[in-house]
Amino acid sequence: MTANANAKPPHRGPARLGVNIDHVATLRQARRGVEPDPVWAAAAAELGGADGITIHLREDRRHIQDRDLRVLRETVQVDLNLELAVEPEMVAIAVATRPDQVTLVPERREEVTTEGGLAVASRRGAVAEAVKRLRDAGIRVSAFLDPDPSEIDASVALGVDAIELHTGRYADAREGRDRDAELEALRAAGARIASAGVGLHAGHGLDYRNVADVALIPGMAELNIGHAIVCRAVFVGLEAAVREMKARIDAAR
Fold it and tell me: pLDDT digit of tens for each residue in the chain (253 aa)?
């Protein structure tokens, strides 16, 4: 594995929390109306201590809309992380709006949510072009990957700034031996990423009960969490839900 040319020392201290507000937009789109507005949700999340706001602009625009991205780019005061598919037209939108970070993710129209990590090794040319266009525009690039050494190495070779580990298998695993095995796979992948000098991120399926062990992975710099926080917000409000998640992450350290 070749170390990233822009290698940085591993992150120390509690992981940053990126709050994914896609599900707020999902609720709005259920009625094709104007509320709840994800722009307001971002403001509430920031008041709750979010270190970043994450949105996924899908090709089919099933939740986040182009207007949301434009307004959020103007109003979000913390880092704005835009998830998108490795498609030229989507990359062009990112280059035009300049989020702080783009996370490249796989995307299938029929999926309910993102299923699995990005296939980098088999799409090296397309991913390399996307990474180059984004980095040339001054945008940090992260790749959303399964804890697979070959995919990690391929992404490092393309010069990504960070790798976000897909934690879905860990989150879905039965507590005990199965979950422990998935956690060990994440730890091994995290060590590989950190040794390459690439930022270590994680997300998907993390909640208030399972986040601590992932937050404790050495070098973990950023956790992106959405569904659990929005679900909790139904009962306590979004600002409080974000504060609770931040407290869980901070306590793990």
Answer: 555 655 667 777 899 999 999 999 999 999 999 999 999 999 999 999 999 999 999 999 999 999 999 999 999 999 999 999 999 999 999 999 999 999 999 976 555 455 689 999 999 999 999 999 999 999 999 999 999 999 999 999 999 999 999 999 999 999 999 999 999 999 999 999 999 999 999 999 999 999 999 999 999 999 999 999 999 999 999 999 999 999 999 999 7
Which one of the listed residues 23, 63, 201, 204 is annotated catalytic?
204
Is residue 56 annotated as part of the catalytic site, yes or no?
Answer: yes
CA 204 to chain centre: 8
Examine the residue annotation and report whether 83 is marked as an active-site residue of this protein.
Answer: yes
Catalytic residue among 83, 151, 182, 222: 83
User: Measuring CA to CA, which residue among 118, 105, 120, 107 is closest to residue 156?
Assistant: 120
The phi and psi torsions of 197 (rounded to 5 degrees) equal 75, 25
Q: Do 252 and 215 meet the contact criterion of CB atoms below 8 Å apart?
A: yes
Domains and CATH numbers, the chain: 16-252 (3.20.20.70)
Catalytic hit among 56, 63, 166, 201: 56
- Identify whether 166 is a catalytic site residue: no
